[in-house]
Structure formats: structure tokens, C-alpha cells
Automatic annotation (TrEMBL):
Gene3D superfamilies cross-referenced by the UniProt entry: 3.40.50.2300
The entry's keywords: DNA-binding, Phosphoprotein, Transcription, Transcription regulation
PROSITE patterns: HTH_LUXR_2, RESPONSE_REGULATORY
Domain Response regulatory intervals: 5-119
The keyword Phosphoprotein is annotated on this UniProt entry: yes
Annotated organism of origin: Novipirellula artificiosorum
GO biological process, one term: phosphorelay signal transduction system
Residues the record lists as 4-aspartylphosphate modifications: 54
GO MF entry, a single one: DNA binding
Gene symbol of the encoding locus: nreC_3
Domain HTH luxR-type, residue spans: 144-209
Protein name: Oxygen regulatory protein NreC
Length: 214
């Protein structure tokens, strides 16, 4: 009998290998990748049924990777495994189409359950934040004016690269755009977020979970 195929995405190698060990008794782990861009490419190539991904990863964070995969028609269930307890991250993950949001400190007790529920078409949220998350939906908490959702998907991608220290030339090369276009994206991002310096962009990206300080 063919086992369900799972792809793991996490830039912390020790944790990723631990997750692999946890899953291999029940699932076929088809790959482990370390950044969001690798995740998008591997998911399109390997066609897993489930993706277990961190939220904060280099080059492209997990949430933006999930958005790109959804827009590309990839049907894999995405279960986020993350250290972020703030419900704002969980809401962004669910808005991106996630089927699960598991806190890393609960990985051994919750991840398998989350994957099984995702495969049954359900959504799993770590109980420690589930109540607060559902309350935020009931209260109708809207994204603030400074939400990353004010930016386009491409602008969020460029913002992450800027915050990680990439130059306009490096961004242009990575995204296969011109340097002038990369610089134009930066200017529009700063205008949209009402920020005036690269330092403010970096601080914004950290506050909103676009990059990690790990």
C-alpha cells in the first residue's frame, strides 16, 4: 500500500530531521528543504499530499510560499509547525490556506494528529492558541493599516529579501527582474507602509514575522 507523501520545510536542520524521524513510521517523507523558494520548487516537482513547513524561513517565508503554491494550483495540505504563538501569525497562515497550525513545543503530541485531520479535510490548531484565535475571528479583528496584506505578494517577497540584507542587484538576480524594477518595488513598499529607511523596513519585517531574528 502506498504511503502518503510528506514534504518538510524548515531551516533548522536538527528540528527538520527530528520531524522526519517522527513521521517516517507512518508517512513517506519525500524531501526536506530549508527555505521557502526551495519549498515552492520541491512541492511542484514532488507533488506531496502534505507539506509541514515553518513560518519563518530564508528567502521566502512559509506563509508566502503557501500563497504561491495555492495560486499555482498545488493541492497539498499545508500544516505549519512554528514557534509563533501570536494569533496574528495563525490568522495569516489560515488566510493562506493552511490546514494546520502547530506550535513547535507540541510537535511530538500534536503534529501527527494535525496531519491526519488535514487529510480528512479538517483544520487543526494547537489548543493553546485555538481559543484566542477563534475569539479574534468572532470579534472581527481586522488587519491593521500596517498589515503585510497591504502589500502585493511580490512586494512581500521583496521586503523579506531586503530585510535579510539582499541588495537591489541580488534581488533582481534572484527574482529574475531588472535592478530598476527591484528598486521600484522597494520605493513602493516604503510608500505603502509609510516608512523612510531600510532599518525601519527590517524592524517591520521582524515584527510581522516576515523574517526571523534567530
Amino acid at each position: 500500500m502506498n504511503r502518503i507523501r510528506v514534504l518538510i520545510a524548515d531551516d533548522h536542520q536538527i528540528l527538520a530531521e527530528g520531524v522526519r524521524g517522527l513521521l517516517e513510521a507512518e508517512f513517506e517523507v519525500v524531501g526536506v528543504v530549508a527555505d521557502g523558494r526551495e519549498l515552492v520548487a520541491a512541492a511542484k516537482r514532488l507533488l506531496p499530499a502534505v507539506i509541514v513547513a515553518d513560518v519563518t524561513m530564508p528567502l521566502l517565508n512559509g506563509i508566502e510560499a503557501a500563497v504561491q503554491l495555492r495560486d499555482a494550483g498545488v493541492t497539498a495540505k499545508v500544516v505549519f509547525l512554528t514557534m509563533h504563538r501570536d494569533v496574528a501569525y495563525a490568522r495569516r497562515a489560515l488566510d493562506a490556506g493552511a490546514s494546520g497550525y502547530v506550535l513547535k513545543h507540541s510537535v511530538t503530541s500534536e503534529l501527527l494528529t494535525a496531519i491526519r485531520e488535514a487529510l480528512c479535510g479538517q483544520t487543526y490548531i494547537s489548543p493553546i492558541i485555538a481559543g484566542e484565535l477563534f475569539q479574534s475571528y468572532r470579534d472581527g479583528d481586522a488587519s491593521s493599516s500596517g498589515s503585510p496584506q497591504r502589500l502585493t505578494a511580490r512586494q512581500r517577497e521583496v521586503l523579506q529579501l531586503i530585510a535579510e540584507g539582499s541588495s537591489a542587484k541580488q534581488i533582481a538576480s534572484l527574482l529574475k527582474i531588472s535592478v530598476r524594477t527591484a528598486e521600484a518595488h522597494r520605493a513602493r513598499i516604503m510608500e505603502a507602509l509609510e516608512l523612510s529607511s531600510t532599518a525601519e523596513l527590517v524592524q517591520y519585517a521582524i515584527r510581522n514575522g516576515i523574517v526571523s531574528v534567530d
